[in-house]
Amino acid sequence: MPRATILIVDDEDLIRWSLRDRLAREGYRVLEAATGAEALAPQREDVDLVLLHYRLPDADGIEILKTLKERDPELLVILLTAYASVDTAVEAMHLGAYHYINKPFKLDEIASLVEKALETTRLRREVRTFRASQAHPYSLDRIIGRSPPMLAIKDLITRVAVSPASTVLVTGESGTGKDLVAKAIHYASGRAAKPFMNITCSALPETLLESELFGHERGAFTGADRQKHGLFETAEGGTVFLDEIGEMSAPLQARLLRVLEEKSFKRVGGTADLHVDVRVIAATNRQLEEEVRRQRFREDLYYRLNVLPIALPPLRARVEDIPLLAEYYVDAFNREFRKNVQAIVPEVMKRLQAYHWPGNVRELRNAIERALLLVDGPVLTVDCFPLLAGGGALTEGIALPAEGVQLEALERSLVVQALERSGWNQTRAAALLGVNRDQIRYRIENFKLERAQTGETTGA
Fold first, then answer.
1. Rounded CA gap, 278 and 167, in Å?
2. For residue 393, what pLDDT is reported?
3. Residues 54 and 203 in one domain
4. Residue 345 belongs to domain spanning
5. What is the pLDDT of residues 109-151, one digit of tens each?
6. Are residue 82 and residue 217 in the same domain, yes or no?
7. Is the same domain home to 186 and 279?
8. What is the sign of the dihedral through the CA atoms of 440, 441, 446 and 451?
């Protein structure tokens, strides 16, 4: 099978014959053109490389080169000329010529150059294919939604990805897809070929988190028997994603601020400054403005992170996207579990759209996964979704008394009721109110609520 297609453009019959004979023996398919008009005529076959004479009877080789590259920027062009000059060479290379070779030339030299050029193209194509395969799972196509809020978010992600800003802050309730947004930004940016490193700030104690982020020198602490590179060092040229940034301790916040401002840091136990070029994407489900007000998060770090903010809406604020998400997860789990579920009955879909989804998209995904694991038939019914038992819908609302209410007092009362009904289990109380655990914890502190049995502020 021929290895590639090469077009020879030269007005000298002997040159074309010699090149055709040699390249054909190398296994290439060879096309010929004696004029610029023939070279630019539509070809019946795709061309991988052009050997182009600088001076043709009807056209200038530089103009032909320019037109060919405008048509196909990836096309390889090697310029052949008996009229060598530095200016010509510079102009040809500037216009995208792969190489520039003088006549007379040796056929072995041409064959070697052609092989090298085509190998370069092959490698470039493999790299693009690899990048595309790596980026696809995290592309914008994976962010499902056609609602106005999500269309705005997708547009913002596209603009943020190509911006030169080094920091992005993604906010939203738990389960809204902040990690997916961070990956979409990275793989749509010029940093896509570089590492994407992520860490959950609440998952490690402060000392271990510091070492994971900044690395450490041998002997920096007990058990540090060798030097370790941290995430910032490893992600050089790429992206560091710091999830749950609101949980980071004050000392680490100070170190992170220095990295953002000075683009440098020291390993734990080290003395040398290490300079890095990374984009930092931070995410949180906390209200950082409130955390700043309560002096639990550095104000200067907040403003440094909040250069490009992206606020993700909760699922209940974009219920028109629920059918799309449900269909997407049904298809995904059909493939994974080798099922053949064809539909969700309309009544169930109405209930899914009415449900308040405290766990957001993550909870919907888990509900669909469980339904497909247990269903035997081709249709998902209400029995497949225990969370919809009793309707699972939001209440129609609470009638406002004629005399009005104190909103803060009403909110406090509802929080107390939820805590008492759940035995002061913050996670269950949060689910009863359709908020996350951090939000219920904030209200406990804000209202200074205490368990009557112990007289102590809850820490459960």
1. 9
2. 43
3. no
4. 315-391
5. 889 889 888 887 776 666 555 555 555 567 787 889 999 999 9
6. no
7. yes
8. positive
The answer to the question of residue 397 being in a domain is no
Which residues are CB-contacts of 296 (< 8 A; sequence separation ≥ 6)?
none
Pick the last residue of a domain from 276, 311, 346. 311
Is residue 277 domain-shared with residue 376, that is, in the same domain? no
User: Which one of 255, 276, 311 terminates a domain?
Assistant: 311
Q: Is the domain of 305 the same as that of 337?
A: no
User: What CATH code is carried by the domain that includes residue 341?
Assistant: 1.10.8.60
**Token representation of residue 399:** 């009638």
Q: Letter for the amino acid at 423?
A: G
Count other Cβ atoms within 10 Å, centred on residue 393.
14
Q: Phi and psi dihedrals of 35, rounded to 5? A: -135, 165
Tell whether 398 is covered by a domain.
no
**What's the CATH number where 412 sits?**
1.10.10.60
Same domain as 287, residue 160 = yes
396 conformational bin, left if phi > 0, alpha if psi -120 to 50, beta if neither: alpha
For 294-335, the pLDDT digits (tens) are 999 999 999 999 999 999 999 999 999 999 999 999 999 999
Q: CATH no. for residue 277? A: 3.40.50.300
Q: Which long-range contacts (CB under 8 A, 24 or more apart) does 137-142 make?
A: 138/180, 138/183, 138/184, 138/186, 138/187, 139/184, 139/187, 139/188, 140/184, 140/188, 142/180, 142/184
For residue 39, give the H/E element and its range: helix 36-40
Cβ–Cβ under 8 Å, residues 315 and 176:
yes
Query: Contact 39/57 with Cβ under 8 angstroms?
Result: no
Same domain assignment for residues 266 and 295 = yes
Q: List the alpha helices (DSSP H) in 247-345.
A: 250-262, 288-293, 299-305, 322-337
Q: Give 28's contacts (C-beta < 8 A, 6+ positions apart).
A: 2, 3, 4, 5, 6, 114
Is 296 in the same domain as 338? no
Distance CA 48, CA 216 (A): 50
Q: Output the pTM of the full model.
A: 0.59
C-alpha to C-alpha distance for 373 and 333, rounded to whole angstroms: 8
CA distance 112 to 442: 70
**Per-residue confidence band for 284, with pLDDT thresholds at 50, 70 and 90:** very high
Tell me if 64 sits within 8 A of 55, measured CB to CB: no
